[in-house]
Amino acid sequence: MRILDDEDYKDILNQFFKQKHNTKLFRGFAKLKIKEDAFTMEEPFEKIKQSFNEEMQATAIMMPSDENAQRIGENEYLGIVESGFMSMNPSLIHFELKDNYNHTTTIKMRAHGAEGLIKQKTNKKAMDSVKSTFGQVNSDNIS
């Protein structure tokens, strides 16, 4: 996974938050928190890749691939999942689809979200909603 600078993730989140709520997300006590997770699907890579954006539409606002092609690697996607208290705290998830060459596909997630004085577990809740979209309950927790 090609990891962006923290400032890039903050910039994307701030742009989204400004469009939706007409204010910046990262001000005051808010800090960027990162959480990683992954799960494996019993589906061939090509099938998951073809349907990934469509499947994610119910859970995330997917960032256009052409805008981010220079920033992220092949088979990687960026999506914003509204999470936290009253779904008011967005989590930017960087996805990577990995072909396991045994008719399974691993979906790696790296979530970036703002946490202030009150911990809302924004990233964990966002990744849990992604996993439920794909029918996953348990996952390989990376960090």
Structural summary, described in words:
The chain is of the alpha+beta class and 143 residues long. The chain has a single domain, classed as TATA-Binding Protein (2-Layer Sandwich). It has helices spanning 6-21, 45-56, 65-68, 122-133, and strands spanning 31-41, 61-62, 76-83, 89-99, 105-115, 140-141. Strands 2-3-4-5-1-6 form a six-stranded antiparallel sheet. The radius of gyration is 15 Å and the shape is globular.
Order of helices and strands: HEHEHEEEHE
Task: Report the CATH architecture.
Answer: 2-Layer Sandwich
Query: What would the principal axes of the Cα set say about the shape?
Result: globular
> Helicity, in percent?
25-40%
State the CATH class.
Alpha Beta
How far is it from the N-terminal to the C-terminal residue, by CA? 15 Å
The CATH topology is given as TATA-Binding Protein
How many domains? The number is 1
Structural class: alpha+beta
- The helix count comes to 4
Sheet bearing the most strands, described?
6 strands, antiparallel
Q: Show unreliable segments.
A: 139-143
Output the strand order for the largest sheet. 2-3-4-5-1-6
Radius of gyration: 15 Å
Arithmetic mean pLDDT = 85
Measured by DSSP, the beta-strand proportion falls in 25-35%
Number of strands: 6
Summed up:
With 143 residues, this protein is an alpha+beta fold. It is built from four helices and six strands.
Protein topology:
Elements: H1 6-21, E1 31-41, H2 45-56, E2 61-62, H3 65-68, E3 76-83, E4 89-99, E5 105-115, H4 122-133, E6 140-141
Antiparallel strand pairs: 1-5, 1-6, 2-3, 3-4, 4-5
